[in-house]
Amino acid sequence: EQSLQLLELGGSVEEDYIRIARGFEAMRQRCCRLEQDGRRAREQLSRVEAERAALEVKLKHARNQVEVEMKKRHRAEAELEKQERKLQLVFESLMREPWGSEALSREQCSILSALAGRRLGGTLAPGRRSSAVDESCQSLLSHSDISYDRTEDDV
Questions:
Q1: What is the DSSP letter of 122?
Q2: Domain limits of the chain?
Q3: Which of 17, 53, 94, 142 could pair with 100 in a Cys bridge, judged by C-beta atoms 3.0 to 4.6 Å apart?
């Protein structure tokens, strides 16, 4: 009786083993696909990290360049104000001297007065910016939009 049961089970056991073997093969193929996907993802990650590192270097250089240019601009504005103060003093000295108005022609006096009124009158205001640079709100790269945050490591 036991032998008969074993023979009956024997046929279904063999089919079960075949199903199990097919399941293992399907799982092995799936694991191979996942391994290939993982390899491609790691390659893509390394490419993106290299690109990110290159962009960080460019950003660092750009920040440094902006900082250098801002320092140059501030020095140039300070020099401009210094020269304008000297010019204003020369103009005032010329206009105060009794011989100054006699030595200068009427045309020269009017030119100096026009320059003094237009150029020198409003130039000594504190915090004045050079008009050579467009600082309107339409500017795409306003210095106020640039972040000088040095926390690159927080990412």
A1: T
A2: 7-117
A3: 94
